[in-house]
TrEMBL record:
Localization, UniProt: Nucleus
One Gene Ontology term from the biological process aspect of the record: tRNA 5'-leader removal
UniProt source species: Taxus chinensis
Any Gene Ontology CC annotation: ribonuclease MRP complex
Protein name, entry field: Uncharacterized protein
Molecular functions per Gene Ontology: ribonuclease P RNA binding
Length: 192
């Protein structure tokens, strides 16, 4: 720093002389050099590394960026808190995904290339064999139970009544079952 710099002219005179004297003494001892090297040398000489070779330590630190905070620990703490907030609303959230999570990961989407009625006709044939075996092995008393608990993937279903009027009358092969809905592929290759 310059002794005549306007920023330093207003300093109290003894402080100004002290700063200027320290800087000049250090620069003279080291044979000149830039201000950063001088400051590093002074810090290392008076700190914990005073007994070590300061020149070697200066070479390690000089011209390097030093992070004063640990951003990874802050990021990890943020991620842990976010994860805890997402999953702390009860046991249900740990076992099941919400509708928003389903939409986000695409688990409710059904790709167009698989929306072909002919692809699922063989599945319907397999379902007919499955239901025939189920009814043959079941006793006459428990036939209602067997029909209620039977897997309907591959069955041809018709929507008789629905809150959504456009779904009433839709007929097709059931290819997806969720808790409250059936996914039906119609003969016109439309997934409903």
């Amino acid at each position: 720093f310059e002794a005549n710099d306007p920023a330093y002219l207003k300093l109290y005179r003894p402080v100004h002389e002290n700063l200027l004297g320290t800087h000049l003494q250090t620069c003279v001892k080291r044979g000149g050099g830039d201000t950063i090297s001088v400051i590093l040398h002074d810090i290392l000489r008076s700190g914990d590394l005073a007994d070590k070779d300061t020149e070697e330590e200066i070479d390690k630190i000089q011209d390097k960026y030093l992070a004063l905070e640990n951003p990874t620990s802050q990021r990890n703490a943020y991620n842990r808190a976010r994860h805890k907030a997402l999953h702390s609303s009860g046991k249900r959230s740990q076992k099941h995904m919400s509708m928003r999570q389903h939409r986000h990961c695409g688990s409710l989407d059904f790709p167009k290339k698989y929306q072909k009625y002919d692809l699922y006709l063989s599945m319907h044939e397999m379902w007919k064999e499955y239901i025939a075996d189920l009814l043959k092995n079941g006793r006459q008393k428990n036939i209602e139970y067997f029909l209620l608990t039977a897997d309907l993937h591959g069955a041809i279903l018709a929507v008789v009544e629905s809150k959504i009027k456009s779904f009433t009358g839709v007929q097709g092969i059931m290819i997806r079952e969720t808790l409250n809905t059936f996914g039906i592929l119609t003969s016109e290759n439309r997934f409903r």
